[in-house]
Amino acid sequence: MATPDRYVIPVQVGRPSLANNTADAERFKQALCQALGQDRCAASQVRLTLTVLKDLPQTLRLADYHVKVILFRDREVWTVAGIRPFTHARPLTGAAMDIGTTRVVLQLIDLETGQPMGQELGFDNPQGSVAPDVLARIHHAGSGSGLTELQSLIIEAVNHHIESLCTAHNLSPDDVYLVAGAGNTTMTHLFLGIDPFEIIREPYIPCVNILDALAARDLGLRIHEAGQVFLFPNIGSYFGGDLLAGILFAGLDQKEDPCILVDVGTNAEIVIGNRDWLVACAGAAGPALEGGVSKMGMTAGPGVIDRVRIDPETRRFDLHTIDDSAPIGICGSGMIDLAAQLFLSGMIDIRGKFSVKTCQGRLRDIDGIPTLTLVDKADSGTGEDILFSQVDLNSLTSSKAAMYTILEVIVRQTAGIEFQDLSTFYVAGTFGSFINPVSAISIGMLPDIALGTFEVLGNSSLKGAALMLSNMDAYDRVLSIREGITYIELNVNQAFMNMFSGAKFYPHTDVSRFPSVVVPKQ
Fold first, then answer.
1. What is the 3-state secondary structure of 369-432?
2. Mean pLDDT of the chain
3. Is residue 467 part of a domain?
4. Contact, 162 vs 178, CB < 8 A?
5. What pTM was estimated for this model as a whole?
6. What is the pLDDT of residue 291?
7. Could you tell me if 404 and 509 lie in one domain?
8. Taking burial as the number of CB atoms within 10 A of a residue's CB, which of 155, 159, 308, 357 is the most buried?
């Protein structure tokens, strides 16, 4: 008999008789373990909740003892999340979830086929209305009922959007039996209602890194009453389950040649390695790219500038916005494009400073700060000028320098290889979906390697969560990945600080590292 790889298992339970008066639960467990394979399951490893037990006698008899069992692994324990007649026609589903600081994304998964059902559903994390970033949320959680408020906001939003997804598929939340979610360490704590304050206080210790599977009703999630929730484990305070989900989806743990995965969000989280070794680190390279620094910066959406071109001769700007709407601001990928085009057209110098001569007509002084007019108010969607100041540019310069330095530390110093030795350079997250590698190379943010090496993964956190619901083997892989990762702390890495200053030039103080970049004459 083939070994099952889905979380829905067909089970034929033996009928009771005067000669076989074993209790329903014991006969069910024996039959389930036989279906799973005796090498994977013993009856003592099967957990039946009281909710499931209450329905078991009637369900077995109405189904003529032929049922579909919805399971989830919890280390060595198999928890039963639901039992349905084998003839049950409605889809048995799970919900994959990316618990982002800014955005939360959900997708339904057919647990029998392992396939996604329809489109993803994304929405703004409602915690942002109370506290915009991770640090603010941690402090808010420590004030009065702040923690309860933050947890309630995210749980209720998830409930609402799961219901919306179900309605779109003519389903009910009662048809959702499993939830797999991935987020950074703080977002995971807030989702659970656990105080995250120790994450930011030396020695920076989370309450929990590896969670047991949880009953959905204990979290307030309104799915099937016996539903189970799995949250991807963290590595530490600044390396969360979202990147672990990305490693799972990219398959770094199964690669023969070394690869690297980069996810830029609140932090830049990076892992390098293959099936034999994995090294990870995280560092602050994201804020200027998230819209948290520039007054016009924002996440991707209609009217947001995502691509920029500047004619090097005429210095005419060609701006592209999402949905071709009137421009209202710029996102991280647009900022990288902008910086690259400003540099290649000679409008900023190698120090990342505006050139008064070449920016003539667009540059003005506002409160003593050189400021570039990107879009005139007559053409903007806000009715106001869209500006890019030297302060904005300095923030971007620091972010790009931090990104490159983090990469150099983990690839060259820690792994002891060259950038050219990487077989694949995976870029994850919303940021990675829009970034132009040529622009990132031009400003010295990403290494100057063959463009074919770069591969965009999209929302690898969500896709890793979906993979968890699609294949039983993913559970063992996740725990194995977590145990096999070596995490390095950049905050105490002197090499990082030494190299950072050199990376703050465009593209770098050592231009030989970027042979494809033609540095304009100053």
1. EEEEEEECCCCCCCCCCEEEEHHHHHHHHHHHHHHHHHHHHHHHHHCCCCHHHCCEEEEEHHHH
2. 90
3. yes
4. no
5. 0.90
6. 42
7. yes
8. 308
